[in-house]
Amino acid sequence: MKIYKARHGGFCFGVKRAIRLALDAVKNGESIYSFGPLIHNRLAVDELQKKGIITVKGIREIKNKRVIIRSHGINPEILKQLQKKGFEIIDATCPRVRRAQRFVEKLIDEGYFVIIIGEKDHPEIKGLLGYARGEAIIFNETLKIKKYKLGIVPQTTLDIEHFNQAISHILPNATEVKIFNTICHETVLRIREAKRLARKCDAMIVVGGKNSANTTRLYEVCRHYKPSYHIESAKEISKTWFKDVKTVGITAGASTPKKQVDQVVKRLKKLF
Ligand code: SF4
Fold first, then answer.
1. Domain that holds residue 51
2. CA separation for the pair 128, 108 (Å, rounded)
3. Is 19 close to ligand 1, i.e. is its CB under 6 Å away?
């Protein structure tokens, strides 16, 4: 069986930067706390925890007033609370997410009502909503909104096809529309590469956290073309998946460490 590994897959620039900042922050042996997992990868988060990068749900759980903001960013109201309380804050918000936050602020300042396209429960979207100061909603297909001025901002990890569909749904509802394309180039490359491999191979394996939105999206893209399997670890691979499979493609989400992908390749080589 031939194995094809995606050229664009695994840790993105923003995730690498967040991990580097977090590891620097615990060099002195003092822990740092993150609201929600620093990255959406259970196994990697367990390793980070051992190094003193601890996941919490709220401010009360923080024991030493040291916080790292994840690459997804944070709601500005929570940031203000932390600053007021005198927390030491390491801001690992990805510069591309920060850019999207600035666009939302700019649209609000210019009098636009903002439509954010993305997953409502994703931390990046919760942060973006915060920057809209109550003047935004999250897109859904049943949305019937009539406004004179509409601003549109997508989640950085949105598939460009979904973005286009959402825009064509929104356009008839407004007289003036301002669109910022904040989809990250890393997302575009990963999805394009996943599609290319899925067309070429008999089956696809997508490696990454089940809680990772961009990994799940890669899986959805792949399974549209070929039988696909979303796994968190090499141990989940089953030999039965590969009956009559001569070529398999492997891709990974933006929060998947290289080590996890290597382990998948190793296990496939061992099995076949
Ligand atoms: S996918 Fe893009 S926007 Fe999101 S963290 Fe990675 S580099 Fe930043």
1. 13-94
2. 12
3. no
